[in-house]
Amino acid sequence: MPRITSRDNPRLHDAAKLIASSRERRKAERCVLEGDHLVEAYCRRVGPPETLIVAEAAQERAIVRELISGVPPGRTLIVAGKAWSGLGPVPAADGVVAVVPTPRARLERAADFCLLLEDVQDPGNVGSILRSAAAAGVAQVFLSAGCAFAWSPKVLRAGQGAHFHLGIYEDVDLPGWARAYRGKVVATAAAGGESLYDADLTGAVAIAIGNEGGGLSDALQSAARATVNIPMPGRFESLNAAAAAAVCIFECVRQRTRARA
To answer: Where would I find the H helices in 70-141?
Structure first.
């Protein structure tokens, strides 16, 4: 496997461009995975990455040696010393970076447990929501064009591998999708509608989460079959989008588990 000692190495330079620019990632249809945990999750669910880049010192860790053993030698770059700084903002302490094709899920049929994200722009929130969704058994997540790019490094870091357990669809016309959905689309709101805990969330359901500033659009609210709010008896009535999404989808889990018992 190649050992890289210069920051000017063409393959290292190409990877650095992808790390530094969302435009380059979209253009190349590639995403960058940072850290051994995220790379391991990808390898376990999908297979070897297109390119694995490893800091020479990181080979001392058993998990890194295991990752290297599962990737064809020609796809692995071992980066020595100061050459790692050619990767820009990626900390040398991470020691592992992978370049992979951006996964594109093919939609054949909407699932019975879905999540809709409308204009959720904070990458950390989007990643946290995807992580909760994967843990709850959500099958598909649909994002509007105004959401943070699901495959950006910040979203991937926050998701901690959740991406590879979900069908993720971006740039979706959510009101149109909601009108066509065979199940129940449930809109979330800061006020109005019924309590989340009184709503029927069994059966085929899609939970719609909006951004923290404006909530859901009128068009998506109109396309939904129900509106719910999260009761907040405390004096500080504020949940961020990620926390609200987690509360809602795990209430779905509770109800669906009880219905199957």
So the answer is: 123-136
